[in-house]
Amino acid sequence: MSEQNTARRVVVAEDESLIRLDIVETLRDNGFDVVGEAGDGEEAVRLVRELRPDLVVMDVKMPKLDGISAAEQIDKEQIAPVVLLTAFSQR
Hints:
CATH topology: Rossmann fold
Radius of gyration: 13 Å
CATH superfamily: Response regulator
Number of helices: 3
CATH architecture: 3-Layer(aba) Sandwich
Number of strands: 4
Oligomer: single chain
Shape: globular
Helix content: 25-40%
Largest sheet: 4 strands, parallel
Distance between the termini: 49 Å
Number of domains: 1
CATH class: Alpha Beta
Strand content: 15-25%
């Protein structure tokens, strides 16, 4: 199978299960292979180290370890690019 036809492997980290489900469904509908799901930052880092995905989609505000700190760890180890998402409002 050529690189062009290979689905990109993604780990999704989001503490709100319904939002995580929606993100996973959207990614799968668009041809991505979601190989792991995490509900907090520590679990996300562990999964990324274990699964070595092509991309990580992560919420900024999560329990145990926030998304920014988790992304810094993943970046420091040069495992995968991280896309940070948030629905947080200061209102």
